[in-house]
Amino acid sequence: MNTNSHAQDDVITAYKDAPARTVDADGVTYAYRELGPKGGIPVVFFVHLAATLDNWDPRIIDPIAQGRHVVAFDNRGVGASTGQVPDSVEAMADDAYIFIKALGLDKVDIFSFSLGGMIAQALVVKHPELVRKLVLTGTGPAGGKDIDKVAGTTYYDILRATLTRSDPKEFLFFNRSATGKPAARAFVNRLKERTADRDAPMKIKGFQTQLKAIKNWGRSAPADLSKITQPTLIANGDNDRMVPSILSEDLHRRIKDSQLIIYPDSGHGGIFQFHEKFAPVAVEFLAR
């Protein structure tokens, strides 16, 4: 860890400039990026299905990194991290725990999206002492209605995207509407802001294994989320085709005193479409 006193003067707060780092733990080399001022409780970002470090919207990460130490990582078998992608969400949570402990962190806030939110739930239920606050976006609980249909929706939209030569996220994350289409294009362009030191792409086999893990999560017995006592912020768009929006309401009902935001006329990527509204809410929630 770089603890030079002068390092605080030139703190990196733009995700596109965050250095690529690695840490070894339990035979796996985990790829990660960190930014923001050191000290205090770090915010660890848990990314979505088929995503690598290059899939975080800088308009969400950068505002948080203004005042917080932020860590984004590739779980086992994803992007530049070595090893095989596990076929269960619980095993992914075990790997995330190993990664966080390998960085020497004893207490973290978690910001999660989609599959990342499933991993975050599994982690906090198993290791409640590790997590101070939880942000769950575009996600749902174990046993959640229609989560096991994610694979079908995903393959259908990948096909649609291929036929129109566009990015599948434009279909999966956004409504195909007058507001959704430009928001989708803007989001996809923001992901290209980092030009140097980009991550290794997701492997097809790993992606298919992640889909299998999501299907199993959707078909498994519900976890007891009343155990989650951490302050929790839940957000989604009102028309999520991947992880149905009603599952955010389900999470809100089951996690005591949680805060719920549903954005209008938006889909799975509602927090990215409404980043100007959502980022300050997330910053305020994490700082509280």
UniProtKB/TrEMBL annotation:
The keyword Hydrolase applies. The keyword Lyase does not apply. GO terms for molecular function: hydrolase activity. Coiled coil: none annotated. Gene3D superfamilies: alpha/beta hydrolase (3.40.50.1820). InterPro entries: AB_hydrolase, AB_hydrolase_1, AB_hydrolase_fold. It comes from the Bacteria. Residues 43-272 form the AB hydrolase-1 domain. SUPFAM superfamilies: alpha/beta-Hydrolases (SSF53474). Keywords: Hydrolase. This is Alpha/beta hydrolase. It comes from Kribbella capetownensis.
